[in-house]
Amino acid sequence: MFRRPRERAAPRATNSDMNADASAQILTLTEAGLYCPAGGFHIDPLRPVDRAVVTHGHADHARPGHRAVLATGETLDIMVARYGETCFGTGQALAYGAPLKVGDTTVTLHPAGHILGSAQVAIAYRGARAVVSGDYKTRPDPTCAAYEPVACDVFVSEATFGLPVFRHPPPQQEIGKLLRSLAQFPERTHLVGAYPLGKAQRVIRLLRDAGYDAPIFLHGAMGTLTQLYERHGVALGDLRPLEAADKSVAARGGVVVCPPSATTDRWSRRFVDPVVAFASGWMRVRARARQRGVELPLVISDHVDWTELTAAVEATGCRQLWVTHGQEDALVHWAQQARGLAARPLRLLGYAEDGEPEGAA
Ligand SMILES: [Zn+2]
Ligand SMILES: [Zn+2]
Question: 100-119, pLDDT tens digit by residue?
Fold first, then answer.
């Protein structure tokens, strides 16, 4: 579907207006979200479309019902695992860095460092280039390919943690808190709330890298995606489904990884006096941890913090910055005032609020 031949000639442009014309043809905003007129495709569309390029598998970016989907192989696998084989008409996998002609554009995918398979979408057209980041983080994460800065004219950035107050601590430091609590309360089960796609696998990997090699028990909602990570080569050590495990073992301490919502629902009552932990960038906000009854907040985020966000924008060398879900205004203000960039908030509804709960952040 994405390889169909060109149907019309590209409009002619003179040298002087080439860049302005090219920018408008590369990206525009429609009701369904970001659209590339020159290529004839949407990016992370909010409703079913003919041709979608999908940055990653989180529910607010990867929605079912498109006729054709272009994404990394990992993202296509994640979509099928979550929504079933019929969630799109045709799926075409594109490897990181491999160029593909789409309409009059050339599309490449570049690692976004957010979760397994996550990609930034670079669109080249007539000497101009736009990059749509999707969600991203720039610090190393052994469960996915490392973020790669891509030079561009127009950069579309998320701003989930786009306020100067957000500074994520090193994740190893947060995992250290969990390990100290395990040592201090060996008889109490540690319920670690973590979003089932990405965060859960990263927390497990961080525990392993810190030397924790005991079995880790998984809530039933964790199995499919965790196995998918393992199939894609992410080693996670000794994992056991909680339902099949000897409950008396699981209840006598150790780590149980579960969706964030499970720590407050009926399911959690089977544990006697558990330590409730929650891994999310939002745990930086003390009130959120208190509201959810979280005893052990772990500030582990799959998004850039303010320092990383502004550094990432600068590294692209972009002249135009479009800001999407999150704290849009602060980043727009910074881009205009501190960097002299043309910047605009996109105010797209539908990202993060409904599809992807705060646990994914
Ligand atoms: Zn995401
Ligand atoms: Zn998102």
Answer: 999 999 999 999 999 999 99
pLDDT (tens digit, 9 = 90+) per residue, 337-355? 999 999 999 988 766 543 4
Which ligand is closest to the CA of 137, given by its number? 1
Rounded to whole angstroms, the Cα distance separating 55 from 33 reads 13
- Amino acid identity, residue 203? V
Q: How far is the CA of 61 from the centre of ligand 1 (A)?
A: 7
Among all ligands shown, which has an atom nearest to the Cα of 115?
1
Q: What pTM does this model have?
A: 0.92
Q: How far is the CA of 56 from the centre of ligand 1 (A)?
A: 7
Ligand nearest to the CA of 301: 1
17-50 pLDDT, tens digit per residue, is: 445 667 789 999 999 999 999 999 999 999 999 9
pLDDT at residue 88, as a whole number: 97
Q: Which ligand is nearest to the CA of 352?
A: 2
Domains detected in the chain: 18-165+303-360 (3.60.15.10), 171-298 (3.40.50.10890)
